[in-house]
């Protein structure tokens, strides 16, 4: 099927749109943003564990040396627990 380039645009539809007017508020207008409780929890640095560069280097070296083993059972258990927790939170909300 060939598309004819001479096809006319339906009436009321502009052929081109100005990119400068999309998404930019006018001067002096402040945008108000509200986050959900979950988003606020994810952004709060108080509960986030500290990054341990030494531990990352240790794991990286273990992988390079072939000493790193993966406990698939533990990963599966934690994944199931995490999914169960998410489902419980969604049911409450």
Whole-number average pLDDT?
Answer: 76
Please outline the major beta sheet. none
Number of strands: 0
What fraction of residues sit in β-strands? under 5%
What do you see in this structure?
The protein has 93 residues and is mostly helical. It has a domain at 37-92. Helix content is 44%, strand content 0%. It contains 3 helices and no strands. It has helices at residues 37-43, 53-65, 72-92. It is flat. Residues 10-15 have low confidence and may be disordered.
Indicate the topology:
Blueprint: H1 37-43, H2 53-65, H3 72-92
Main features:
mainly alpha; flat; 3 helices; 93 residues
Summarize the structure.
The protein is an all-alpha fold and 93 residues long. The protein has helices spanning 37-43, 53-65, 72-92.
């Amino acid at each position: 099927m060939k598309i004819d380039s001479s096809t006319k645009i339906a009436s009321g539809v502009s052929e081109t749109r100005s990119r400068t007017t999309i998404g930019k508020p006018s001067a002096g207008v402040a945008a108000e943003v509200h986050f959900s409780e979950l988003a606020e929890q994810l952004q709060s640095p108080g509960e986030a564990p500290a990054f341990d560069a030494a531990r990352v280097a240790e794991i990286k070296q273990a992988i390079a040396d072939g000493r790193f083993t993966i406990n698939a059972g533990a990963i599966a258990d934690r994944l199931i627990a995490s999914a169960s927790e998410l489902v419980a939170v969604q049911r409450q909300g």
